[in-house]
Amino acid sequence: MTLSRDQVAHVAMLARLGLTEEEMELYREQLDAILAHVDRLQQVDTSQVVETAQIGGLLNAWRDDERRPCLSVEAALANAPKRRGNHFEVGAIQE
Amino acid sequence: MTPPTASELAGLLRSGATTPQDLAARARADLERISDLNAVLRYTDSLAERQAERAARTLAEVPERAGPLCGIPFAYKDVLCVEGVETTAGSRILQGHRPPYTGTALRRLLDAGAVPVAVTNCDEFAMGSSNENSAFGPVGNPWDPGRVPGGSSGGSAAVVAAGAVPYSLGTDTGGSIRQPASLCGVTGFKPTYGRVSRYGLIAFASSLDQIGPFARSVADVAGVFSAIAGWDAMDSTSSPTPVEPVEDQLGRGIEGMRLGVPHEYVAEGLEPGVRAAIETAFSELERLGATLEEVSLPTTEAGLSTYYIIAPAECSANLARMDGVRFGLHIDRPSLTDTYLETRGNGFGPEVKRRIMLGTYALSSGYYDAYYRKAQKVRTLIADEFDRAFATVDALVCPTSPLVAFARGAKSDPLSMYLCDVLTLPVNLAGLPGISVPCGFSEGLPVGLQVIGPRFQDGVVLRVAHAYERATSWHAEQPPVPPVASGAGS
Question: Domain containing A15 — which CATH number?
Fold first, then answer.
């Protein structure tokens, strides 16, 4: 299969990665090569197999929903690039 | 002269021949002496000072409460969070980031009186096999600084190989402890998945990541493992299975053990020098009383493809949190979308972007079943094959890496770099414990023997590695450069 430039641009947008035109072309070529290699997965018969998401065999881990100590507001905001009062500040979501 | 191990330093501390402060100062000086390798990103001087003082007090006042790591210096990979200490995952996007909390593995070491002296360089977000992907420059291999130390925990392997610290922590998602251990001629251990809490580890691929130690002896990696292993409420994937006391397994020898050699791991693709060293190691294991037999893991060939869908898919989800809002780089634009695009486009390096793109593609609408779900199914087959092999053998033995340390810049094509991990990543897919121990040289560069065990039988892996280490002297070989003063307190 061959990826188009539009497909690469679509994936970059999904991933919220701002790429230059040169990067788009580079990743288009490289992802093509990697996906061509990965296509050998399709030759493995998995018709009788279930997926593995958790290799240790664990199921959900539950705990009681009770109040516990947590980070202070100051500690949680200490690395914020922009803050306003006790909040993280973000730019406009809609123009 | 061989630099002392952590166990030897513990003896010196108890006899009063040295102090934690002295050991920390010597480690610091030795790390500075090897600064050309670029293995250290930053020193943790004030933390080291506090921990050394605390350890000295424990040793003086309540020596019975001083564990084997009390007062011993170590270094850790730049993906492990310590409160207030800059942690960047080798990435520009996290430059200046100071985590508000300490991860569990580090917490346990600090509680044991261990003394962190430095944060080590690594591939950006632990993605790479050569340590060339760090935003802060590549790391040199102590055996030949023009060659790579392996990756992604290249700095952690290099500082131990150079003799500057007795042990270090790294992380292993597809081989990132074992492969650099092999390329640098040290011992590196990846525990069973879920055995060591991942809390406070900056996530790359959560179903594969595991923290583990580098050291110059199997006894030392076993000691560090014991200190950091065990269930943790802060990691829902950490296992409640009780931790076996692995030290009991050391020294038992391997007489009568059955060791499997996976046919697919030795059939082709090994450098001749690696093959020769491994075959000699196999003979040594037989001489020690083990029976070697060939086993087959037929889905091995699909392992690389499976890994390079699952790991990028998980990384694309995990790295979504690098959004320039709560921490890290922020490039201000009028709209939030443009802020994301600019911050992430500029903050991530080429390999991280490549994997985010690959993972996002594999998870995107219309491709999920063909790639991600398919890879998860093949992962089941790979794990089942290992489990079947362990029905007849106690452990598997094979090379860690098909090749020795290569020259910087030699692998510019992503796929050729990915192939470096072909013998280590199936172990992560199956969640097994694996270790690499030095087993010889090829063209003057170290070769590693990998031992793989059944899930939660970390002690079996350490037992085989320990028996091999005791019978050989490869682990005591020292790199020619750079010269490091002995850490012994004389």
Answer: 1.10.20
Does residue A76 fall inside a structural domain?
no
B268, with CB counted inside 10 A (0-12, 13-18, 19+), is: exposed
Interface ipTM: 0.95
Please enumerate in sequence order all residues whose Cβ is within 8 A of that of A23, keeping only pairs 6 or more positions apart, or say none.
B353
Using left for φ > 0, alpha for ψ between -120 and 50, and beta otherwise, residue A56 falls in alpha
- At residue B347, the 3 state secondary structure works out as helix
- Give CA–CA dist B139/B117, Å, rounded: 18
| Residue A83 to residue A72: CA distance in whole angstroms | 15
Helix B303-318 with B374-389: angle, nearest 10 deg:
120
The total number of structural domains in chain A stands at: 1
In a domain, A68, yes or no: no
Q: What is the pLDDT of residue B489?
A: 38
- Averaged pLDDT score across all residues of chain B: 96
CB within 8 Å: A92 and B194: no
Is 60 exceeded by the pLDDT of residue B487? no
| Mean pLDDT of all residues in B409-420 | 93
In a domain, A27, yes or no: yes
Question: Which residues 34-53 of A have a C-beta within 8 angstroms of B?
Answer: 34-35, 37-44, 46, 49-53
Q: Say yes or no to pLDDT of B460 above 90.
A: yes
CA–CA separation, B27 vs B73, rounded Å? Answer: 7
pLDDT at B484: 52
Which of A7, A39, A55 to mutate against chain B (most B CBs within 10 Å)?
A55
* Domain enclosing residue A35, as ranges: 5-42
Residue whose entry in the numeric block shows the structure tokens 């409420």: B233
Q: How far apart are CA B234 and CA B101, in angstroms?
A: 12
Smallest Cα distance from B345 to chain A, Å: 4
CB-based contact (8 Å) between B383 and chain A?
Answer: yes
Percentage of chain B lying above the pLDDT 90 cut: 96
Q: Which residues contact A4 (CB under 8 A, 6 or more apart)?
A: A28
pLDDT digits (tens, 9 = 90+) for A9-67: 999 999 999 999 999 999 999 999 999 999 999 999 999 999 998 998 888 888 899 99
- Cα B91 to chain centroid distance, Å, stands at 18
Tens digits of residue pLDDT in B95-149: 999 999 999 999 999 999 999 999 999 999 999 999 999 999 999 999 999 999 9
Instruction: Please tell me the predicted confidence (pLDDT) of residue B488.
Output: 41
User: Nearest to residue B168, comparing CAs of B150, B188, B143, B149?
Assistant: B188
In this structure, what token pair is assigned to residue B321? 């949190």
Only one residue has tokens 């087993």, namely: B439
> What pLDDT does B5 receive?
97
Q: Do A92 and B379 touch (CB under 8 A)?
A: no
Q: Which among B194, B324, B380 has CB closest to A52?
A: B380
Query: Quick check: helix, strand or coil at residue B342?
Result: helix
Closest CA to B6 of B85, B83, B109, B82: B109
A68 touches chain B (CB under 8 A): no
Q: Is residue A35 part of a domain?
A: yes
CA distance B343 to B350: 14
